[in-house]
Amino acid sequence: MSRVCEITGKKTAVGNRRSHSLRATKRKFYPNLFYKNITDPTTGLIYRIRVSAKGLKTLKKKGIV
User: Fold this and answer.
1) Which residues pair with 4 in a beta bridge?
2) Cβ pair 12, 28 in contact under 8 A
3) Residue 38 in contact with residue 6, Cβ under 8 Å?
4) pLDDT by residue for the chain (65 residues), tens digit each?
5) Which residues contact 16 (CB under 8 A, 6 or more apart)?
6) First to last CA, the chain
């Protein structure tokens, strides 16, 4: 499964790891993802979504979580 937030669309970023001599090698920056169960108020169905910490903060601000 890919590491993508279903709310914000954040995904794995690529950058460089720098040694003491400033030699560059590739590395990955992973988003801070969680699984969260969200209840749909109209149907009562529970959805399990993969959401980042920032996406979770957005859901709390909108009053969904």
Assistant:
1) 11
2) yes
3) no
4) 799 999 999 999 999 999 999 999 999 999 999 999 999 889 999 999 999 999 999 999 998 87
5) 24, 25, 26, 27
6) 24
Which domain range does residue 29 map to? 13-62
**β partners of residue 59:** none
8 within some domain: no
Q: What pLDDT is attached to residue 1?
A: 75
Number of domains in the chain: 1
What pLDDT score does 43 carry? 93
| C-alpha distance from residue 6 to each of 13, 21, 29, 31, 45 (Å) | 16, 39, 17, 12, 17
